[in-house]
Amino acid sequence: MEIYLDNAAGTKIDNEVLNKINETYKQFYGNPSSLHSLGEKSLDYLNLQKEKISKILNCKSSELIFTSTGTESINLAIKGFINNQKKHIITSAIEHPAVLESCKFLENFGFKTSILSVNNEGLIDLEKLKSAITKDTALVSIQYANNEIGTIQDIKEISKICKDHNVLFHTDACQVVGYEDINVKNLNIDLMSLNGNKIYGPHIGLLFVKEGIKLEPLIHGGGQQKGLRSGTEDLPLIAGFALALEKAGESKNQEVNKLTRLRDKLVKDLLKIDGTYLIGPKNRLCNNASIVFKDLSSDSLILSLSDHKFYVSSGAACASRTKKPSHVLNAIKLNKKDIESSIRFTLSKYTTEKEIEKAIEIIQKVVNNLRK
Ligand SMILES: Cc1ncc(COP(=O)(O)O)c(C=O)c1O
Fold first, then answer.
1. In the chain, what percentage of residues exceed pLDDT 70?
2. How many angstroms does the Cα of residue 196 sit away from the middle of ligand 1?
3. Distance of CA 4 to the CA centre of its chain
4. Which of 59, 162, 174, 318 is flagged as catalytic?
5. CA-CA distance, 61 to 208, in Å (whole number)?
6. Which atom of ligand 1 sits closest to the CA of residue 145?
7. What residues contact residue 87 under an 8 Å CB cut-off, 6+ apart?
């Protein structure tokens, strides 16, 4: 039995979504920018997908920009301010590197970044956010939920503070689709980054850009997507992404209940193992559990579990091979030794009770062996 609990890093594609992508490749090969009827057929289909997505996000179709990945969406949302008059950005210490590195890049162009610290649950202090805002603040970029420890920020309150201070607000919502509200009107958000491969969809990114916000493009060319992201729209992936978003919304409540129950069972049994404790917030993403296995190296654990076809990560998967200690676990002030002994388990809609039971059995065995 294969047990895949690394879904924050990437999910297995949904079969219906995969079929939709295949069908779109077969049927809509015309370029949506071409004048002939095949091009028009593709353009109509593209507009249909945009309408579907805009209904889900509660925005206008014209406010959607498709990109290659979540990383590109975030880069556009932040570096897009390069020519802005105001040159101060506020973010948090536990953002994805796409946010932190984009802010760093803008510092070469006269920007200043304020990086808000977080408490041991990964939450920013809203009072600190208020006092960090200056007359020069162009943008606040705070992630909706953290990919390593599952902290969910108070997005409504953050957006209210930004509105009260007349500052734009971007959120990296890559980890929350299917679990939290992504209605941009409810949340009062100006810019929101999403991606497809966390929701059983294709590798594609999306940036919601509220009407009236002017960004500089990162990619120049034929002027597609209002000149903000040139390049022929990837219609098959867009259609797959629209379906994945739709499916995530339809099954939201049911999934949250199921994942919470299975995740809680996993945590309860893992904490019975000597020298383990849960890191991060009390109120976390329903599919996330981050656990320290004292005095064991997370690399040895990951590789030993992998020998049993049981797949997990330590911290963020994209950082796992860099051997750098997790900046997120550092920011919540976990000691260095425990950072190196932490494992992230992230469940998916495919996770079964049987798999969780087997997972617990395997971990108990592997931990006992490594501790011998
Ligand atoms: C919170 C968060 N933001 C951004 C990204 C980057 O997304 P992508 O891998 O699509 O570039 C990820 C992916 O791991 C993520 O978890």
1. 98
2. 10
3. 18
4. 318
5. 9
6. 1
7. 106, 109, 110, 111, 112, 136, 138
Q: What is the DSSP string of 106-171?
A: HHTTT-EEEEE-B-TTSPBPHHHHHHH--TTEEEEE--SB-TTT-BB--HHHHHHHHHHTT-EEEE
Instruction: Put residue 227 in one of left, alpha, beta given phi > 0 → left and psi -120 to 50 → alpha.
Output: left
> Is there a catalytic annotation at residue 318?
yes
Task: Give per-residue pLDDT as tens, 100-144.
Answer: 999 999 999 999 999 999 999 999 999 999 999 999 999 999 999
Q: How far is the CA of 298 from the centre of ligand 1 (A)?
A: 22
For 240, the token pair is 């797959």
Ligand 1 atom 5: residue of nearest CA: 70
CA-based diameter of the chain, in Å?
A: 70
- What pLDDT does residue 38 have? 98
Q: What domains are defined for the chain? A: 3-11+252-371 (3.90.1150.10), 15-250 (3.40.640.10)
Question: What's the mean pLDDT in 340-346?
Answer: 97
The helix or strand, by DSSP H or E, that contains position 175, with its residue range, turns out to be: none
Average of per-residue pLDDT values in the chain: 96
Between 315 and 199, where is the model more confident? Answer: 199
Tokens representing 4 are: 């895949």
Residues 72-106: tens digit of each pLDDT: 999 999 999 999 999 999 999 999 999 999 999 99
What confidence tier does 322 reach under pLDDT thresholds 50, 70, 90? low
pTM: 0.97
27 membership: H or E segment, kind and range: helix 15-27
Rounded distance between C-alpha atoms, residue 181 and residue 104, angstroms: 30
pLDDT band at residue 372, thresholds of 50, 70 and 90?
A: confident
**What is the distance between the alpha carbons of residues 99 and 103, in angstroms, rounded to a whole number?**
6
Report d(CA 350, CA 11) in Å as an integer: 10
Neighbours of 121 (CB within 10 A): 16
CB 341 within 8 A of CB 293: yes
Residue 31 in contact with ligand 1 by CB distance below 6 A? no
